Amino acid sequence: MQLDTEELSGVIKRLKRAQGQIGGIVRMIEEGRDCKDIVTQLAAVSKALDRAGFAVIAAGLRQCLADDPSGNGVDTTSLEKLFLSLA
After folding, report:
1. Which has more pLDDT, 36 or 69?
2. Which are the contacts of 86, defined by CB distance < 8 A and separation ≥ 6?
């Protein structure tokens, strides 16, 4: 299924922010920063990536339902597998 890139603009922003956070984490490690600070940033970027994944799945669900309001043609097994892959 191809998703609407305009609908995912928020996800793109979130991923770019996470990309910057990852660069910051690498610098923190290279500079020998405190473990607690590094882990805090890792947790933040992990949460951001999880939220981006859930947003992509939610967009897919909306699109599936818009394309097939009855829901008969929606491959719920595949969508469930995608959703659970983020858990």
Report:
1. 36
2. 50, 53, 54, 57
